[in-house]
Amino acid sequence: MVNENIIKTVLNKILNLKKEEKFLIITDNIKRHLAEEFFIYSVSNGYKVKFTLISELKQNGEEPSRDVAKEMLHSDVILIITNKSLSHTEARRKATEKGARIISAPGITKEILERCVDIDYDKLIETHKWLRPIIVNSKQIKVTSKLGTDITFSTQNTHGYAEHLLKHDKGAFGNLPSGEVDSGVINANGKIFIDGSMASVGLLKEPIELKVVNNQAEIVYDNEDSIKLKEVLDTIGQNAYLIAEFGIGTNSNAKLSGIVLEDEKVLGTVHFALGNDLSYGGENDVPLHLDGIVKEPTIIVDKKIVMENGKFIK
After folding, report:
1. Nearest Cα to 293, choosing from 132, 180, 177, 130?
2. Quick check: 305 pLDDT over 90?
3. How far apart are CA 238 and CA 258, in angstroms?
4. pTM (2 decimals)?
5. C-beta of residue 60 within 8 angstroms of C-beta of residue 85
6. Distance between CA 190 and CA 93 in Å, rounded?
7. Are the CB atoms for 92 and 86 separated by under 8 Å?
8. Residue 222: pLDDT over 90
């Protein structure tokens, strides 16, 4: 069972849930056991909670049913504990626009909850207050790594608001665990070596090399993990290869586990996502959004080093 203090932290400290609010928990059969612990605690403590079980999604970014999307629009607070992600869906975006406070925790485990949730949020907030404006105001970002990553791009629609790390304001949205400053990507050119983990693949045995021209990626596939990723992307088509997101991990408790929900939050890493970019002001409406982790990167923002070999430079 999950430590009750963790559940209290999520519902009380992070979500600031009130007894009179309409609270919706969405889950699937794979993550039902975890979601039920939050539901039982909520019922026992007098919250107005509804438990909704959905069919397992085929891919991260696949839309839920119309009925579930409608439930989301009529909820004040939403906790999504599913195997695949609803984060980058129209249903989630519309619920956010209407003011729902939402946590999305695709793939979360008891171990991730207990490792990454009970953290120093004041310190995390300060990091985001420093980092997010640098990314927002950037003209060009360059990311390199010892393995060979060397890519330049610009960003748009940067998330990771310090004030959204705690979901107290209407429309606040983010993952559990918290810990990334993420942006849309435009004008990306170069190469990326994904060497940590990749959504739909897991922890990598060998790096996945991406060649990127005008935001469109091509897999240089000469190993098993690259082939696995290509098979997933090819089920969607060429639009699945669009660079959709750039993110910087900020959670000092997170570690590479093979579950991208945690992996993309690891301090000292960055991630690039392929596929759906609607959450970042883009127009690539495909039912897939897959993140890949780059370890120990160097980040140069407008010729100033912000991170060097995985260490922030302030």
Report:
1. 180
2. yes
3. 26
4. 0.90
5. yes
6. 31
7. yes
8. no
* pLDDT category of residue 247 using cuts at 50, 70 and 90: very high
And the tokens for 292?
């890949």
The amino acid that residue 298 corresponds to is T
Measured CA to CA, the distance from residue 80 to residue 87 in angstroms comes to: 9
Q: Which residue has the tokens 């203090």?
A: 5
Identify the pLDDT of residue 215.
Answer: 97
Angle at Cα 244 formed by Cα 251 and Cα 237, nearest 5°?
130
Q: How far apart are the first and last CA of the chain?
A: 40
Angle among Cα 86, 131, 277 to the nearest 5 degrees reads 30
- All structural domains of the chain, each given as residue ranges with its CATH number in brackets, are 4-116 (3.40.50.2300), 121-312 (no CATH)
Question: Residues, the chain, total?
Answer: 314
Distance CA 29, CA 82 (A): 8
110 in Cβ contact with 3 (< 8 Å): no
Three-class SS string for the chain? CCCHHHHHHHHHHHCCCCCCCEEEEEECCCCHHHHHHHHHHHHHCCCEEEEEECCCCCCCCCCCCHHHHHHHHCCCEEEEECCCCCCCCHHHHHHHHCCCEEEECCCCCHHHHHHHCCCCHHHHHHHHHHHHHHHHCCCCEEEECCCCCEEEEEEECCCCCHHHCCCCCCCCEEECCCCEEEEEEEEEEEEEEECCEECCCEECCCCEEEEEECCEEEEECCCHHHHHHHHHHHCCCHHHHEEEEEEEECECCCCCCCCHHHHCCECCEEEEEEECCHHHCCCCCCCCEEEEEEECCEEEECCEEEEECCEECC
Question: Cα separation of 50 and 100, whole Å?
Answer: 15
